[in-house]
Design a protein that fits this description.
It is built from ten helices and twelve strands. The protein is of the alpha/beta class. The strands form four sheets. Strands 3-2-1-4-10 form a five-stranded mixed sheet, with helices on both faces. Helix 1 links the parallel strand 1 and strand 2.
């Protein structure tokens, strides 16, 4: 049978969340043929023992944690669907989102799709964001709030970057721009990827019809360690696309901004490790 959609979920010690996500896919998805691929980044919470027996999925176990983007790449390499649907383990489908994405994608080629995510309480959850300001002009425009902001009006909108929790992508776009940059371990990988898409005039759009809950942050608790990983990823992307002078200014800005915000714990080794990123 021809597979229309390959759904890829990266699991890292989130067995309960991943099971909940898979159950919602199985319950809600009716209108398309699909496969579920779970890529496990060396979980130690019993995920391997549990998911390796699940006949509803293709289960791939990595012997080490290779990062979010790299794990999705592993899934994309074995996927056979016409579309690739990257879905966070901490998401729950509330309707036949897969079929709705597929139908819209068929009518709108050259477009990567996301939806208006919601919290468990039904409130709006972050669903899109902006690329980093790679030039001084972009930075100043954003500081002066001259950049057009998309209103949360639950209408179709083209955006700079769809949240990585749900990305519905035609296979031909992946063949055109390549996969995730595996130098980014975690955070910002979807932004760098979609920036490459933007450079090739590929649309990124949020649509209102798919309904998905994102239990944001439950796969990794907030901490200085999390901030360190975020900044490492962010500065890798800045170094990839910024000129040296602007990069130097950006490092000064982040250094003093972060140092001031954490001025009462500057001797903390984790704070120092983050400050070293900006040097």
């Amino acid at each position: 049978m021809k597979i229309q959609v390959s759904i890829i979920i990266v699991n890292y010690n989130t067995q309960t969340l991943t099971k909940q996500c898979i159950d919602s896919i199985l319950q809600q998805t009716k209108g398309v043929s699909y496969e579920i691929i779970v890529v496990d980044n060396a979980s130690t919470d019993g995920s391997k023992e549990y998911f390796s027996k699940d006949k509803n999925i293709k289960y791939i176990y990595n012997n080490k944690n290779i990062g979010f983007g790299a794990a999705n790449n592993v899934g994309m390499k074995v996927a056979v669907g016409e579309y690739i649907f990257l879905l966070n383990s901490d998401t729950i489908l509330l309707n036949d989102a897969v079929s709705l994405f597929y139908a819209y994608g068929e009518a709108h080629p050259n477009t990567v799709l996301g939806c208006y995510l919601q919290t468990a309480e039904g409130q709006y959850a972050s669903s899109f964001h902006y690329f980093p300001a790679f030039t001084i002009k972009d930075f100043l425009l954003r500081q002066l709030r001259l950049k057009k902001h998309i209103k949360i009006d639950y209408q179709e909108h083209d955006v700079e970057c769809i949240c990585g929790a749900d990305m519905f992508i035609p296979r031909n776009i992946i063949e055109k721009v390549g996969m995730f940059d595996e130098n980014i371990f975690l955070y910002g990988e979807e932004g760098e990827w979609q920036y490459r898409m933007a450079q090739q005039n590929i649309f990124r759009r949020v649509i209102p019809s798919p309904k998905i809950v994102h239990l944001e942050g439950q796969s990794m608790s907030a901490s200085l360690k999390k901030q360190c990983i975020k900044y490492e990823s962010h500065f890798y992307v800045l170094e990839k696309y910024m000129d040296k002078f602007t990069l130097k200014l950006a490092k000064y800005y982040y250094y003093y901004h972060f140092a001031f915000a954490n001025r009462h714990q500057l001797k903390n080794p984790e704070v120092q490790s983050i400050l070293n990123i900006f040097k």
